[in-house]
Amino acid sequence: MPRLSFAAAAVMGLLAAVSPAFADGGKMPRIVSLTGHGEVRSTPDIAFVTSGVSTQGETAAEALAANTKAMTGLFAALKDAGIEDKDIQTSNFSVQPRYDFSNGQAPKLVGYDVSNNVTVKLRKVDTLGALLDKMVQSGSNQISGVSFDVSQPEEAMDEARKLATQDATRKAKLYARAMGVELGNVMQISEGSSAVPPPLPFVRGAAMMKADAAPVPVAAGEQTLAADVNIIWEIKQP
């Protein structure tokens, strides 16, 4: 079933609400339906980083044993950095055979790769660079991404809602003046909201970083919190 647009769904909801008027022989109300948009930029105060270890071995057991040892070191480093258990979550674990496709011959099994990754929630963004460095020094050779978020977005979202309402009202009044009509009572309000993330720093190839490197430079930037609102007004009868 095809999805309805935000505005179309709002109009259909209005038609359903006024359908009893048709049953009684009433007239369909004249309306103005406008969508408003509001955005507020906030500084992120939490970060998420996915890190882990990839190991190889001639057998799956050998690769797994090496991976388990390295991951134990990574977990210890995270604990030492003050990361709580509740903020560490396994996000990927895989065991894959590795083949040699060289010389145009049939694939030959040459070993196994084991990968184990965890996603870490960091509640102090200003310590992210030091944590990345600590992960690498503890043996992590996979850092697949970094993202940021706002832990308590409610206040910013409420401000975005106000801006969205003002935007919809401004446009509705503009159209009403252009058409020579006057807005009446608000008949319906419906909301849609979203968080628009900024470009995120992305880190790969952690094994290539120097073990004695300084804390990794990172920038949290700003997070855009957005709200959309659709408002339907009745047009006053002349």
Describe this structure in words.
- The protein is an alpha+beta fold.
- The chain contains four helices and seven strands, in the order H-E-E-H-E-E-H-E-H-E-E.
- The strands form two sheets. It has a four-stranded antiparallel β-sheet with strand order 3-4-2-5. Strands 1-7-6 form a three-stranded antiparallel β-sheet.
- The longest helix has 26 residues.
- The two termini are 40 Å apart.
- 25% of the residues are buried.
- About 15% of the residues have low confidence.
Strand order of the largest sheet: 3-4-2-5
Average pLDDT rating: 84
Number of strands: 7
Number of helices: 4
Portion in helices? 25-40%
Low-confidence spans: pLDDT under 50, at least 5 residues? 6-24, 198-213
The fraction of residues in strands falls at 35-45%
Overall outline? elongated
Q: Kindly provide the radius of gyration, computed on alpha-carbon positions and rounded to a whole number of angstroms.
A: 28 Å
Cα distance, first to last residue? 40 Å
Overall structural class, as computed from helix and strand content, comes to: alpha+beta
H/E topology pattern: HEEHEEHEHEE
Give the biggest beta sheet.
Answer: 4 strands, antiparallel
Secondary structure layout plus pairing:
Layout (H helix, E strand, L loop, with lengths): L5 H18 L7 E12 L3 E12 L2 H21 L7 E13 L7 E15 L5 H10 L4 E8 L4 H26 L3 E14 L26 E13 L3
Antiparallel strand pairs: 1-7, 2-4, 2-5, 3-4, 6-7
